Amino acid sequence: MADTCGQIVLGSGLTVLSHPLMYIKVLVQVGHEPLPPTLGRNVFGRQVYQLPGLFAYAKHIIKIDGKLGLFNGLVPRLCAGTVGTIVHSKVLQVRLASAVFVMCSGQKVEEGSLEHVVNETTREVIARSCATILTHPFHVITLRCMVQFIGREAKYSGVFDSIVTIYREEGILGFFAGLIPRLLGDIISLWICNILAHLINTYAIDDSMSHTGEIKNCSQAMTGFFASMLTYPFVLVSNLMAVNNCGLAGGLPPYAAVYPTWVDCWRHLSRECNMSRGNSLFFRKLPVGKTYASAQKRFY
């Protein structure tokens, strides 16, 4: 219990610190570009037209809503983090996946083996999936509170009011908009990360080397970053579907088409070469073949 409380406190602190970053990332994912491109230099020193980065975007939000405006949607996100940590911890304590594998195999699994990695990854997938499903309604509310910035709406003003609004307009399914691509992205990312880390630690790192533990931790972090890059399109599609056709300007044309399913959203983004939109908030390149519409504050 003490460990769980510590994780909640630490997680809440990190959530507060990282919230402005997520807020700006979500607005960029939706396609909101309130500032026109400017002439700057890329990482190689060449002069190119660039889109405003993190700090320019943050200054724009502060100019309109003040510094507190950077924390729109923070409360439901904190709720999601707290509930998710508790659910994740409780599911891991049950050790359901490990019990199933032990009963099936009838033998003790050697730690560090591929079978052990598969077992532990399965346990983590079950725990994380349960946490994701139960906290997704808060995630949807968080995203919609953020996207309101585009149309200056106040439709989602609080957690309880937002719950009533979503249930009245969309029913139970409205709380789980964008859940499937989010779940798929989490599961694929976790498997890629753990399997790659195991292969690197087993075949590329010699246990006789000094600082082996630090090297293995570094490889785990690197594979995690690699996996998150590969599965970023699932994050993008999930966030777009969570706000799609919900009555907000950011989820309706011209910012977004009305997608019947998340697969349609994926296909549309793929055709438009927008699968990485919002992935980087620094040195942002102009979209190829797009024209900036200052009145709509977006590219078309």
Report what the structure shows.
The strands form 2 sheets. This protein has a 3-stranded antiparallel β-sheet, with no helix packed on it. Strands 4-5 form a two-stranded antiparallel ribbon. It is globular. The protein starts with a helix and ends with a strand. The chain has helices at residues 2-30, 54-65, 74-94, 96-105, 114-151, 159-170, 179-203, 212-230, 232-243, 262-271; strands at 38-41, 47-51, 284-285, 292-293, 298-299. The longest helix is centred in the middle third of the chain and has 38 residues, at 114-151. The chain is mainly alpha-helical and 300 residues long. It is built from 10 helices and 5 strands; from the N terminus they run H-E-E-H-H-H-H-H-H-H-H-H-E-E-E. The mean pLDDT is 88.
Secondary structure layout plus pairing:
Elements: H1 2-30, E1 38-41, E2 47-51, H2 54-65, H3 74-94, H4 96-105, H5 114-151, H6 159-170, H7 179-203, H8 212-230, H9 232-243, H10 262-271, E3 284-285, E4 292-293, E5 298-299
Helix pairs in contact: 1-3, 1-5, 3-5, 4-5, 5-7, 7-8, 7-9, 9-10
Task: Detail the poorly predicted runs.
Answer: none
Please tell me what the overall shape is. globular
What is the residue-averaged pLDDT?
88
**Percentage of residues assigned to helices:** 55-70%
Category by helix and strand content = mainly alpha
Radius of gyration: 21 Å
Q: Tell me about the largest β-sheet.
A: 3 strands, antiparallel
Number of helices: 10
Strand content: 5-15%
Assembly state here? Answer: single chain
In spatial order, strands of the major sheet run: 1-2-3
What distance lies between the first and last C-alpha atoms, to the nearest angstrom? 51 Å
SSE string, helices as H and strands as E:
HEEHHHHHHHHHEEE
Number of strands: 5
